[in-house]
Amino acid sequence: MEVDAEVPLEKLSNGLLDWHERIAPFGSGNHRPVFVSEGLKVQGSRKLWEGMNLLTLGGASRRSSPGQRRPSPPGRSTRRTP
């Protein structure tokens, strides 16, 4: 599998997901980008429809800058995967 970029969990946002949707449609000549995040573990999954699963991820630490509120619950995110 070819990876386009490593993206730490704390850098993921709806802005990245919005950008991802704007560069669609994906197919021949416009491949879906592949991102990785180190230290994640699948804590749960649910099939939404054929070829689309909703994953609950955890395991990576989310570091906050001084004065920044830490997301709750820490280290967890829910993302769609094809």
Work out the helix count.
1
Sequence of secondary-structure elements: EHEEEE
- Give the CA-based shape: globular
The averaged pLDDT comes out at 76
Radius of gyration, taken over Cα atoms and rounded to an integer in Å? 14 Å
Percentage of residues in DSSP E strands: 25-35%
**Strand line-up across the major sheet:** 3-4-5
Give start-end ranges of low-pLDDT stretches. 64-78
> What is the rounded distance between the termini?
14 Å
Largest sheet: 3 strands, antiparallel
Helix content: 10-25%
Provide a short characterization of the protein structure:
The protein has 82 residues and is mainly β. Helices cover 11% and strands 30% of the residues. The chain has 1 helix and 5 strands; from the N terminus they run βαββββ.
Account of the protein in words:
The protein has 82 residues and is mainly beta. Helices cover 11% and strands 30% of the residues. It contains one helix and five strands, in the order βαββββ. The chain has one helix at residues 14-22, and strands at 5-6, 35-36, 41-49, 52-58, 77-81. A three-stranded antiparallel β-sheet has the order 3-4-5, with no helix packed on it. The longest helix has 9 residues, at 14-22. The radius of gyration is 14 Å and the shape is globular. The chain starts with a strand and ends with a strand. Mean pLDDT is 76; it is low at 64-78.
List keywords for this structure.
5 strands, 82 residues, mainly beta
What's the arrangement of secondary structure elements?
Layout: E1 5-6, H1 14-22, E2 35-36, E3 41-49, E4 52-58, E5 77-81
Parallel strand pairs: 1-2
Antiparallel strand pairs: 3-4, 4-5
